[in-house]
């Protein structure tokens, strides 16, 4: 582990622009937070710094890390400027970006790591760890566990250390076609038919856009962030302050309003919430038998994100495990990678 | 027959050490913006942490008001924009509420018991405070995130009298069980009134008027009376008015229109994803239920039954735990509840008032009161001495027997001693004797006063009175 830290100038890491570090400007890529300096530090950054990790820098991202593609954390890792990155994933976009760049990317089970100090736009926004496998394990040992500032963190602490596993003893399922070389390594995994597959992306879109509307309502320019100077009254102030958001965010906020307002498309939001509850039960049943699910990084992450399961990306492949089966997931990924 | 339908929505600040979702102190009256942190200021990346004590107090209130406590509920986001709402949404509960379907029993104007149903009690956070000054608005966020319960009644209240009775019972109970200090003047109890009239015979009704932010029980009463009159005119004149929001103007004694609203505002409630569902153990709920003491209403009934008190006396004694315990201890020891109630409701209450003390601050042992009442009733000391003694013990403490002995306060009932004083007083006050004989009864009071003065307050007043009447009568009145 020390070797990596030395290579990376005492274990430096890069963070998303939506992570709080006291005194540093944190704008989450949005004009709405222009000039905003964090008054406190995110719990996970504090924990890493206490273990001598140093922030290497902040990666440019799209506004609130919502869009696909642009991600400075991924770029810094791809260019070997740093070996560990902490990013925010929305709907699998970090997994896809990491996978496309050939960078190991992993979203831990929600509750394992504190979200305090991360500017999440929805309940599905997840922390992603990217980079050298050993550093990801080391970081997880440091940042996982109970945080009194995050009510959703768990008491239990997992032992993130690599143990090679016998792939033949893992019951894998495929939620899409797998490459031949992978089938050779794993045998022919049983095919997992995901019912209502189309609804996954839709449910994600509906609920996350509704959440985005209220999450971004905080940035009204009253206490911090962008202050409009052209307004006649309070309503106009709010309206103009929200003009600071980019087109994509505005589109999402508007969608969220329509989905959550009575008399519009509220039943779609209620339907999505009902779908989510059913999905959770389906996954509980699935994982009674199955331990690892493999599928395309384009679609499988939605299932993992909607049901709070850990998921990792290896190229175009997404790999999902049961809730809190994170160590098994990581060991599987590494063993599989080496076997390929 | 026209019926008045009144429903109340009451916000009550909970008496917790810290705020609802952060560890800032929950205090009133501190300099502006001194009890704030990134969480209650709604800074990016912060997360709400549920205050367990607030949940406990809300369950306590729900239990005291006979509600069903939902073992599973959740927090929701109620969305609207206003500068004192730091997050652009308020964390509250939409459905289900933590507590549902309760009631408070009141006595109506005819003295009959009536249940006012409570639809729901839910927990939520308070907003900051906007202070409008000289064209500017200043914001104080010390109140932002203070824990609240909102109590919503069914429209079972039929008059201003019943509304005030209900609020009185509610305030008394919440204070009694330690849920809130319920100070309307500090905003820890705030009330909105919903009122309309229904003419069942002619199948007509008025639009619901919501009167916001009432600041006293008496204002609630006056606003209801005013609205009944105003809406009655509308009914008579056949004017159709939609739902409307109003404010009470204390100076003009009228409600004033703020805005018409055809339907309830859409707050676009959605689940608060930053908090886990609120799941309570049955054991936790039962523990809280068991901790609720006998409530004032129940206590009033028991005091009437066990001690033969009037409803008036029993009600006053039941309102405060310190006073009711003090009464019971004294009544049990003395064996005459009525006598004890008289002394407490008149003398002790007066002393508390004079000293500007809260009832909870009563620091006198019940046995001292019992001794004073006993000695007065047995003529060991006279009533006047008893009251003076009570004042001294109340203010400075001390031992009743010791004070009586040291100061020689014991009443003198020896006839020859008293007769000697009466003769002396009559001998010196011929004018008063003449005045009494000519029909001026006040002259007798003067003579009594003189007798008490010569006896240094120790003479038995009943005996003095009898002796004076006897002699003056003999003198041929």
Give the helix/strand layout.
The complex is a heterodimer of chains A (340) and B (477).
Chain A: H1 2-7, E1 12-16, H2 43-50, E2 54-59, H3 72-78, E3 84-89, H4 93-100, E4 105-107, E5 126-131, H5 133-143, E6 172-174, H6 180-186, E7 190-191, H7 197-215, H8 234-241, H9 247-260, H10 266-289, E8 292-296, H11 300-306, E9 311-314, E10 317-321, H12 326-339
Parallel strand pairs in A: 1-2, 1-3, 6-7, 6-8
Antiparallel strand pairs in A: 3-5, 4-5, 4-9, 8-10, 9-10
Helix pairs in contact in A: 7-9, 7-10, 7-11
Chain B: E1 2-13, H1 52-64, E2 68-69, E3 72-73, E4 76-79, E5 89-92, E6 99-107, E7 113-125, E8 129-133, E9 136-140, E10 147-153, H2 160-176, E11 189-199, E12 204-205, E13 209-214, H3 217-237, E14 244-249, E15 254-260, E16 270-271, E17 278-279, H4 282-291, H5 296-307, H6 311-318, H7 321-334, H8 337-354, H9 366-377, H10 383-396, H11 400-407, H12 415-428, H13 430-437, H14 442-454, H15 461-474
Parallel strand pairs in B: 13-14
Antiparallel strand pairs in B: 1-10, 1-11, 2-6, 3-17, 4-5, 4-16, 6-7, 7-10, 8-9, 11-12, 11-13, 14-15
Helix pairs in contact in B: 1-4, 2-3, 5-6, 6-8, 7-8, 7-9, 9-10, 12-14, 12-15, 13-14, 14-15
């Amino acid at each position: 582990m020390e070797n990596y830290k030395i290579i990376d100038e005492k274990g430096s890491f890069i963070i998303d622009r939506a992570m709080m570090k006291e005194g540093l400007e944190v704008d989450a890529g949005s004009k709405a937070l222009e000039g905003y300096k964090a008054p406190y530090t995110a719990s996970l950054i504090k924990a890493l710094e206490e273990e001598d990790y140093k922030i290497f820098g902040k990666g440019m991202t799209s506004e609130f890390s919502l869009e696909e593609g642009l991600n400075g954390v991924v770029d810094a890792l791809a260019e070997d400027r740093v070996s560990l990155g902490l990013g925010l994933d929305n709907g699998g976009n970090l997994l896809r970006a990491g996978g496309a760049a050939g960078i190991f990317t992993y979203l831990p089970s929600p509750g394992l790591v504190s979200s305090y100090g991360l500017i999440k736009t929805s309940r599905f926004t997840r922390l992603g760890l990217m980079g050298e496998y050993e550093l990801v394990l080391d970081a997880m040992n440091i940042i996982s566990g109970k945080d009194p500032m995050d009510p959703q963190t768990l008491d239990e602490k997992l032992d993130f250390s690599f143990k090679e596993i016998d792939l033949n003893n893992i019951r894998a399922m495929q939620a899409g076609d797998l490459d031949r070389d992978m089938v050779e390594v794993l045998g022919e995994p049983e095919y997992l038919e995901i019912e209502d597959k189309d609804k996954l992306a839709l449910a994600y879109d509906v609920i996350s856009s509704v959440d985005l509307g209220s999450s971004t309502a905080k940035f009204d320019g009253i206490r911090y962030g962008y202050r409009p100077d052209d307004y006649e009254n309070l309503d106009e102030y709010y309206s103009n302050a929200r003009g600071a958001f980019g087109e994509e965010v505005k589109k999402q906020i508007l969608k969220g309003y329509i989905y959550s307002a009575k008399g519009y498309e509220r039943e779609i939001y209620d339907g999505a919430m009902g779908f989510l509850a059913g999905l959770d039960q389906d996954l509980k049943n699935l994982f009674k038998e199955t331990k690892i699910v493999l599928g395309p990084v384009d679609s499988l992450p939605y299932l993992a994100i909607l049901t709070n399961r850990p998921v990792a990306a290896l190229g175009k492949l997404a790999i999902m495990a049961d809730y809190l089966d994170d160590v098994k997931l990581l060991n599987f990924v590494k063993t599989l990678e080496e076997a390929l | 027959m026209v019926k008045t339908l009144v429903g109340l929505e009451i916000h009550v600040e909970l008496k917790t050490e810290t705020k609802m979702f952060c560890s800032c102190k929950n205090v009133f009256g501190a300099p502006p913006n001194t009890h704030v942190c990134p969480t209650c200021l709604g800074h990016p990346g912060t997360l709400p942490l549920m205050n367990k004590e607030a949940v406990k107090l809300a369950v306590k209130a729900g239990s005291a008001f006979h509600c069903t406590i939902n073992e599973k509920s959740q927090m929701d986001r109620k969305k609207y924009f206003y500068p004192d709402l730091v997050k652009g949404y308020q964390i509250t509960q939409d459905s289900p509420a933590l507590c549902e379907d309760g009631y408070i029993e009141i006595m109506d104007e005819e003295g009959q018991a009536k249940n006012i149903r409570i639809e729901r009690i839910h927990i939520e956070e308070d907003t900051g405070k906007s202070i409008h000054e000289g064209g500017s608005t200043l914001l104080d966020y010390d109140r932002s995130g203070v824990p609240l319960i909102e109590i919503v009644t069914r429209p079972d209240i039929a008059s201003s009298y019943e509304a005030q009775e209900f609020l009185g019972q509610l305030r008394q109970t919440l204070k009694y069980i330690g849920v809130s200090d319920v100070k309307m003047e500090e905003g820890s109890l705030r009330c909105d009134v919903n009122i309309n009239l229904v003419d069942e015979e002619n199948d007509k009704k008025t639009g619901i008027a919501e009167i916001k932010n009432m600041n006293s029980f008496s204002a609630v009463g006056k606003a209801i009376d005013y609205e009944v009159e105003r809406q009655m005119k509308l009914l008579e004149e056949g004017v159709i008015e939609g739902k409307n929001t109003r404010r009470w103007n204390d100076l003009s004694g009228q409600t004033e229109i703020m805005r018409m609203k055809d339907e309830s505002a859409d707050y676009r409630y959605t689940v608060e994803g930053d908090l886990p569902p609120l799941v309570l153990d049955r054991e936790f709920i039962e523990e809280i239920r068991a901790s609720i003491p006998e409530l004032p209403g129940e206590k009033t009934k028991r005091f009437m039954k066990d001690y033969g008190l009037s409803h008036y006396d029993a009600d006053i004694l039941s309102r405060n735990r310190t006073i009711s315990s003090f009464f019971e201890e004294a009544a049990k020891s003395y064996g005459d509840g009525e006598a004890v109630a008289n002394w407490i409701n008149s003398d002790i209450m007066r002393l508390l008032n004079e000293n500007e003390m809260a009832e909870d601050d009563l620091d006198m042992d019940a046995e001292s009161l019992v001794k004073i009442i006993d000695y007065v009733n047995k003529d060991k000391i006279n009533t006047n001495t008893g009251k003076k003694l009570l004042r001294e013990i109340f203010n400075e403490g001390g031992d009743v027997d010791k004070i009586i002995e040291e100061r020689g306060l014991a009443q003198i009932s020896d006839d020859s001693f008293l007769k000697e004083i009466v003769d002396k007083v009559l001998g010196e006050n011929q004018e008063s004797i003449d005045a009494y004989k000519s029909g001026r009864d006040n002259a007798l009071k003067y003579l009594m006063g003189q007798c008490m003065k010569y006896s240094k307050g120790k003479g038995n007043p009943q005996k003095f009175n009898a002796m004076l009447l006897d002699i003056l009568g003999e003198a041929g009145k």
